[in-house]
Amino acid sequence: MEKLYIPVLAGTTREQRESIYAARLVAEVGKTFEEIETELVDPKDFVFPGDGNDPEGKDPRYTAITERADGFFIVSPEYNHSFPGSLKRMLDSELKNYIHKPVAFGGVSSSQWGGVRGIEALVSTVREMGLVATFTDMQFPKIQELFNDEGILQNESYREYVKGAWIELIWMAKVLKYGRETVESKHHKISQQADN
Ligand SMILES: Cc1cc2nc3c(=O)[nH]c(=O)nc-3n(C[C@H](O)[C@H](O)[C@H](O)COP(=O)(O)O)c2cc1C
């Protein structure tokens, strides 16, 4: 069976960002699953002129990633009880490439709440995009203590925790890929999906 492609989307371009350590850990754990291919997708690496999803507002490299993806793992910090504008801008740049694909969330904060309000804000956004949210969220609270200044994880039990979130996301990705390829929908052509 062809490997599922499930990229990890980092949530912020902030210069001193620490959530990137959590995003890297999620991608690293994802790479231990034989049945998937994953990579870190960093909003810093893309250019999205203006707002919206008109052709001139897209980055073709992000378009290709979302077209190919069988699901997404978003790891985002909480900014003012929501998620960062750079993540919203990146997500907004595409429309139909998200439909009937699963998404898992990792929330990050310096507080004890682990970005839960950022995740809650994401849920309504991704639902409008046709993405299907998993119910096994990850929280990375007190991010400054969880990783040291070199980005090394200080609590190894988090690897198992991340693994659990991946297992659920992969299950959802398999089921939804099967659905996209075999069950008719007005939102996508069956033959087109099967060629992926
Ligand atoms: C603009 C901004 C808004 C923030 N708002 C919140 C917040 O609403 N809740 C929270 O727990 N932490 C908040 N924080 C603190 C972040 O949790 C902390 O800075 C964390 O390191 C963010 O991830 P980052 O380092 O990748 O930016 C905020 C930080 C910034 C920069």
Question: Layout of helices and strands, plus pairs?
Answer:
Elements: E1 4-5, E2 8-10, H1 19-30, E3 36-37, E4 40-41, H2 60-68, E5 72-77, H3 85-92, E6 101-108, H4 116-128, E7 131-133, E8 138-140, H5 143-146, H6 157-182, H7 190-194
Parallel strand pairs: 1-3, 2-4, 2-5, 5-6, 6-7, 6-8
Helix pairs in contact: 1-6
Residues 12, 14, 17-19, 77-81, 108-111, 113, 143 line the site of flavin mononucleotide.
Low-pLDDT ranges: none
Strand content range: 5-15%
Number of helices: 7
CATH superfamily: Flavodoxin domain
CATH fold group: Rossmann fold
What's the SSE pattern? EEHEEHEHEHEEHHH
Going by CATH, the architecture would be 3-Layer(aba) Sandwich
Strand tally, please? 8
Largest sheet: 6 strands, parallel
Question: How would you describe this protein?
Answer:
The structure is a single chain. The chain has 7 helices and 8 strands. The protein is an alpha/beta fold. The protein has a single domain, classed as Flavodoxin domain (Rossmann fold). The strands form 2 sheets. Strands 2, 4, 5, 6, 7 and 8 form a 6-stranded parallel sheet that branches. Strands 1-3 form a two-stranded parallel sheet. Helix 3 links the parallel strand 5 and strand 6. Helix 1 crosses helix 6. The longest helix is centred in the C-terminal third of the chain and has 26 residues. The mean pLDDT is 95.
